[in-house]
Amino acid sequence: MSFSLTILGSSSAVPTSRRYPAAHVLNVHERYFLIDCGEGAQIQMKRNNIRFGKINNIFISHLHGDHVFGLFGLISTFGLLERTADLHIYANPKLEKILDNILKFFFEQPLSFKIIFHPIGSKKQELIYEDEKVTVETIPLKHRIPTCGFLFREKAPLLNIRKDMIEYHNIPVKEIYNIKCGKDFNKPDGTSIPNKKLTLPPYKPRSMAYCCDTRYSEGIVKYIKNVDLLYHEATYANNMAKEAREKYHSSAGEAATAAKKANAGKLIIGHFSPRYKSILPLVEDARKIFPNTFAAQEGEVHKVKQTKDKRNQ
Amino acid sequence: MSFSLTILGSSSAVPTSRRYPAAHVLNVHERYFLIDCGEGAQIQMKRNNIRFGKINNIFISHLHGDHVFGLFGLISTFGLLERTADLHIYANPKLEKILDNILKFFFEQPLSFKIIFHPIGSKKQELIYEDEKVTVETIPLKHRIPTCGFLFREKAPLLNIRKDMIEYHNIPVKEIYNIKCGKDFNKPDGTSIPNKKLTLPPYKPRSMAYCCDTRYSEGIVKYIKNVDLLYHEATYANNMAKEAREKYHSSAGEAATAAKKANAGKLIIGHFSPRYKSILPLVEDARKIFPNTFAAQEGEVHKVKQTKDKRNQ
């Protein structure tokens, strides 16, 4: 039951010899969500053993090249590998036409798979993806062009039913799902066994918020309250907070303030300006405000462990 | 007086964890020519200490994504770094419009530099670039879409004038250039000193041909006769020559045959299919026909040394 974020690119718009433009893969129960797709994303996926076939959903925060320019090559590769599964892309509606133009221009044959384009807004929080295990909502951000973050939430898992209780109370199969959902068990003799005696607490649903690119804004805190993992851009160190603000980016301290105010479990800062050969000063800036901060680094995997839920205790 | 080719990408269309799509830099007397610009070219340039400011001319062989998709990010980076020098792009005329569309779409502000687009054909050999040290000509190739290779030739250097002769014959400054060009020196007393006695032979002009992507064709041999360095694609090993032909690519043996027939100095094979974890079998296939064959490998630099010209001996 994985919940882990792999960093493929930690750079801002100008990459360095070690840092790639923005790209990340969130694995939730073996569903792989690609978040932004900067140049080189496909090579980074290969390096980090992320199978292309696992990528069915791509979320693009905004239409700056450093978050998009890996998409054309990735789609091309999917085509050359004769992918058949639909590929869902969630992005600003303007991307659809230019992507379509590029595909028509550069590819000799129609793709072997369908691209299903989901236009998304960036002005209010919206649910844009849902399956039986995960939901994805947008987070309105403040950048120079329309930009949204993404909030990935694991759905609340069912309660664990106690096998010994199934035998002891002779619980029929048809009742098991109801009990896992929290219902009491009514025996044929009229006795009611409270759910609490029949089940064990499952793990707490996990969550990850991705906020990049954005100027720091207290307004986002309400969307990311209590996330286990917060990825927040920190293009600059604290001594460049003014420049960050002017360019609609954040400083490391501002990313940490967002994490603190949101009561996040762990903060990852990324989208670093190429001026920083070492990221340590940014991590130090952030840790003064939010100690559980880590710098995004290519190839690193940030796992969120399962912890007990208290719903049923 | 450099003449060296740096390999930035040795992969065919689908990159691997170690091999990037096609991109190469030829350094001729500190002029840096970028030949094809696959995804990740800018990162590979950073890794190989190729300064962005040195790149003024980009040659695109054809409009398949694996030879082009690094261009958008590279231009974006040039803009962010506030480049001012003109950037010349030599490519199929169709690229101009799509590039223009992409630039308009993804960039908020006009670029800080001019892009000067040079449309090139692929049906006959043409001179497309010339300065005081180098010429670049196209080489018609056989691929699924219009494609051309590039032949880079160093211009014949001037003869080296002997300093001792300048003193001995009291040669005036205004005559030196003529003598370096091969003229005899006529002394004021009417004596003529033959050029051969006044000069030393310079080095032989060097050349490099780039043939990628292409089906093997004996027709190209005439364009690449006696090149010092031949980069010829070898997407497949010899046992897949049929597939190579069908897909308008070459086998390693065919690349070697081209090198042998052209009397090339050294052959570099590249554009490898991702099916080959090791390239050794392809190198072995090629060396049976042309022993001085090497596999393209990211970061490797192939230098062509100066050798004596025999013009004046």
Question: CATH fold name of the largest domain in chain A, please?
Answer: Metallo-beta-lactamase, Chain A
Largest sheet of chain A: 7 strands, mixed
- For the residues shown, what is the average pLDDT of chain A? 95
Oligomer: homodimer
CATH homologous superfamily designation of the largest domain in chain A: Ribonuclease Z/Hydroxyacylglutathione hydrolase-like
Instruction: State the total count of DSSP E strands of chain A.
Output: 18
Lateral strand order in the biggest sheet of chain A: 6-5-4-3-2-1-18
How many discrete structural domains of chain A? 2
Most extensive chain interface and residues per partner: A-B, 36 and 36 residues
Task: Quickly give the CATH architecture of the largest domain in chain A.
Answer: 4-Layer Sandwich
Percentage of residues in strands of chain A: 25-35%
Q: How many distinct helices of chain A?
A: 9
SSE string of chain A, helices as H and strands as E: EEEHEHEHEEEEEHHEEHEEEHHEHEE
Helicity range of the residues of chain A?
10-25%
**How much is the radius of gyration of chain A in Å?**
22 Å
Poorly predicted ranges of chain A (pLDDT <50, ≥5 residues)? none
Ends of chain A: how far apart? 22 Å
* CATH secondary-structure class of the largest domain in chain A: Alpha Beta
Shape of chain A: globular
Structural class of chain A: alpha/beta
